Structure formats: structure tokens, C-alpha cells
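User: C-alpha cells for non-specific serine/threonine protein kinase, please.
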Amino acid sequence: MRPVGSKYLLEEPLGRGATGTVWRARQRETAGAEAAVPGQPGETVAIKVLKEELASDADIVMRFLRERSVLLRLTHPNIVRVRDLVVEGELLALVMDLIDGPDLHRYLRENGPFTPVAAALLTAQIADALAVSHADGVVHRDLKPANVLLKQNGGEMHPMLTDFGIARLADSPGLTRTHEFVGTPAYVAPESAEGRPQTSAVDVYGAGILLYELVTGRPPFSGSSALEVLHQHLSAEPRRPSTVPDPLWTVIERCLSKDPDRRPSAENLARGLRVVADGIGVHASSAQIAAAENVGALLAPDPAPAAVPGSADPTQVLPQGAGSFDPNAATSLLPHTGGPNNAADPTAVLPNRGAADPTAVMPPVPPGPPAPEEPHPWQSQLRAARDRNEQTQVQYLDPNQDPLRRRPQRQVARPQQQPPQPQRRAQPPQPQPGYGYPQQGQPQPQQYAPQPRPQQPQPQRYAPPPPQQPQAPQREPRQPRQRSANPMRIPGLGCLKGCLFTIIILFVAGWLVWELSPLQEWIGTTKGYWAQLSDWFGTVTGWIGDLGSALGK
Ligand SMILES: Nc1ncnc2c1ncn2[C@@H]1O[C@H](COP(=O)(O)OP(=O)(O)OP(=O)(O)O)[C@@H](O)[C@H]1O
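Assistant: Done. Predicted C-alpha cells:
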């Protein structure tokens, strides 16, 4: 079991998509105030761990953080609730409610098409969810059966729309800087394929495709390549199956209109579908049947559709050759350069000169790409989020501020240990402001920033400790020691040397006394010491007298 942040433990993978892997996970402890749902220890959740290539893209990480509030605030009975966002090192994860049930793509594959009534009622609930998110300015942009989870409520199935905001994340400049488009070919609205301005009407188009697929078992447009599918979205009309009642077909046709302004708003779509469901059921009254036949009048477009910022580029052209496409796979990932298509993967990425910034409601990205070496404006927020989620951090602490080092105050307080400091500080500053020795009272960002950028605070908590080597040349050269060349300081060595010296002196003195004094004779004759001394004195005196008389002659 792998921890995600300090609050969650991944238990087993539930499924894998283009943008990441969804895991069943368990809450270890209650999440903090930054989570929309704090949760209880032991609670089971679903966690979507975004792919490494997304998590390592700075733009996507920033977008993820910016969209935190959007993702966390979207609540509706038909929207899978996002409980928390985790940023941990290079890992980005969305913590969601765990939905017990299959996704709609799998359900369709295993059980075949829905009845028209069931399809209308199920799509009406999805339209409810879209209406709420569109009112909040959020466009899903990747509506497809795989993103609808079927929650089992007793015998009933309750559709829950998921992956809000994920298409917007994947469509970050980090992935689209080579002009790609993010989407799933079978569900892409014509204006998205063409790179025209996109609005919430793209979700209504996706709902129309989904509705068609629910009643027929397959999406309306298919082909041998993604490009072929996209061309059909642009120019082909959907073929009407004989099993689809007139009123339902009216709704599908309006949703699949090439002109986004002709598509109903999500709210009107939900209302229209319920009227249709009532009118085509076996117990429908004549009034309900008549209302269903007039459903077209209910399908008014949205007067103020939510826009997808940055999606307007009339110069958009379709890619030249986008690889093969498996129409039976509900999802597909197309390479950025339009190479071969891997039909097993979900969300498609196709060349597109528009769709650069899918952020719908959050503050726009500052215009123009930042200089590569400049810190991203959101970097401090990213750092803060990472700090909050990371379990353990080793952080550098200025020795002067380390309470463990400061504790033995006796040493710090000694006045005789401080004198070299004022001398060093009095020296003129070095011409390398970024790497100066950390001094108390100076702002931290300047101490550790590799480049002097006073306006933009640098993350400092995890900056490596400032190198100490540059300080060494500033020290005063030490005077060579005069007293000893021995670099080792042995306690008591001076005392030992004094003792040895005394012993040598005593030895020499004793030897002189032994040789020059009458000591030897005295010991040999066993005389008394003073008698021997007076004999010796008499001998010396006599010897001096003889010497004097000899000199006098
Ligand atoms: N909240 C959830 N609770 C339970 N299962 C989930 C949850 N979210 C996703 N899953 C399961 O995980 C699988 C993978 O989900 P994911 O959203 O990554 O796939 P996808 O929609 O096919 O791909 P993508 O959206 O990335 O293009 C889904 O098939 C679904 O069954």
C-alpha cells in the first residue's frame, strides 16, 4: 500500500485512463481545512493519480492548483464529488468519492443498448449535472460514457459525471505547446475539431453523442482513423436508427447540430428529455404524447453559454493524418504529432492551433510564456501545497537559528570568541549578492536566490544550505604558531617536558658531585662524612700551596 500525502493510502487500482490511474484508497487521517471533505480515518475513497508526464509539467501543476477551488466546489447529486487535491513531490492526485458501480462504457459493452425511455432519463440526469457546472462557468469538454459512473442504488442506477476539469488540465500549454487538441474523437464537437471558439455547447454535443450511443450501442460517427471521425463530425449527418422514436430523435438531432447556437442549453435539454421520456413510455397520456412531439419548442439554446477561454482560433486546420482509430474503443489517445493512434487509451490529443487555455473560470494565465529561468508566478503556491502534503521534509536551518545549537548559551556568550566576527563584517561586500554568508536580519530570499530577483519571492525553505567555502578567503590569515610545530595539542605535555628537564639537570649535577667531590673516597674508607670533607679540604689547600710555591721559584 502506497501513501499519497500523509492522509491517504492507495490500496488497489480500479482502472487506467489517458490522464492517470484511479485507485481504491483509504483515508489514514482526517484531511485539513484545504480539503472539501475532511473524511474520517478508515473511510474508502477513489484517488485518481495523474500520469507522471502531467504531474511533471509545471504548467499542468499550476493549472491543477488554480483549479483547486473549481474542482472542489462542484457539488451535485450527479457529479462525482472531488474531496481533496494532493500535490506530493512529482505526484498529483484527485481524491474523490468512491462510486460502487461500473462506468457507462463498460455497462454498455456488457449489457447492450438502453431502451429509449431509460436512455432519455439517464441523459437527463447528466444534463442536470452539466447545467449546474455551466452555470458555474465550468465546461467539462470530455463528456463520454467512460466518464459516467453508474452508482448502484438498490436496484436503480444513478449516473455520476466524473473527470471535471481533467480535460482542462490535460489541455494545458505544457501539452498543447506543440499545437494539439485534447478530446476524444468520437465525442468531439465540430467547433472543437476545427479550433473554433468553444462554449458549454460542446458538452451538449457530447451529451447528444452519448444519448445516441445509449439507444444504439455505438456512437454516430466512426471511421478507420481519428481524422475520418473528425471529418464526419464536421460534415456528416447522423444516421437515424429505426428504433429511435421521433421525439427522441428530435432531441438527438438538435444536440448534434453542427451549429453550436442551435443546440439546447443543458437545462433545456434535461427538461426536454424528461418530457420525451414521459411521452414515449407505454403509459403515456395523450397530453404527454403531444408534449413530447412538440419537444423541439423546449430546446432553446443557452443565451449566455459558458465560454472556453483561449479556444478561439479561426486559422485552425485539421491535422494531416492522425493515425488509425478503433471505433469500438470508446476512448483513444492520439499522439501530439499526429502519429499512429493507440485505440486502447482514452482522451485524444490532436494537433490544434487553438484550445490553448481551457481555463473557464479561474484567473487567466499571465499573457506570454515566462522566461524559462524565471520562477513561475504560482510557484510559491505550488511549494505551499507540496509542503502541506509532504509527510517529512528535511529542511535547512540557519545554525544561528537552530535552537539545538543555541542551547549551550555559555559558549555563545563568551566575549573572547566573538572578536573575529566584527572584523569580517567590516569587510566590503563581495560582488556576488546571491551567495553571501547568511546574516541575521537579512531577508531569506536574497540569501538563497541563485539570481537577484527582489520582486519575486523565492521558495527558501528547502533551498540547500549556503556554501560555506566562499567565506574562507575572507578570514584573516592565521599567524603561524611560535610555541610548537606539533599540530597536536597534548594536555600536560609542557609539565612533562619540565619534569624531564629537571631530571636531566639533577642527573648531571649528581654525576659532577660524584666525580669531583670526595664522595667516592669517603664511601671507600668508611670515614665520617665531615672527616673526609676536612681531609679533602686539606688536600686541596696543600695542592694550592704547592702550586703557589712552585710558581714563586
Ligand atoms: N470515483 C470513482 N469511483 C470508482 N471508480 C472510479 C472512479 N473514478 C474512476 N473510476 C474507475 O476508474 C477507471 C478509470 O478512470 P479514468 O477516469 O482514468 O478513465 P477514463 O475516463 O477512461 O480515461 P480519461 O478520462 O483519463 O480519458 C474507470 O473505468 C472507472 O471505472
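User: Anything notable?

Assistant: The chain has 21 helices and ten strands.
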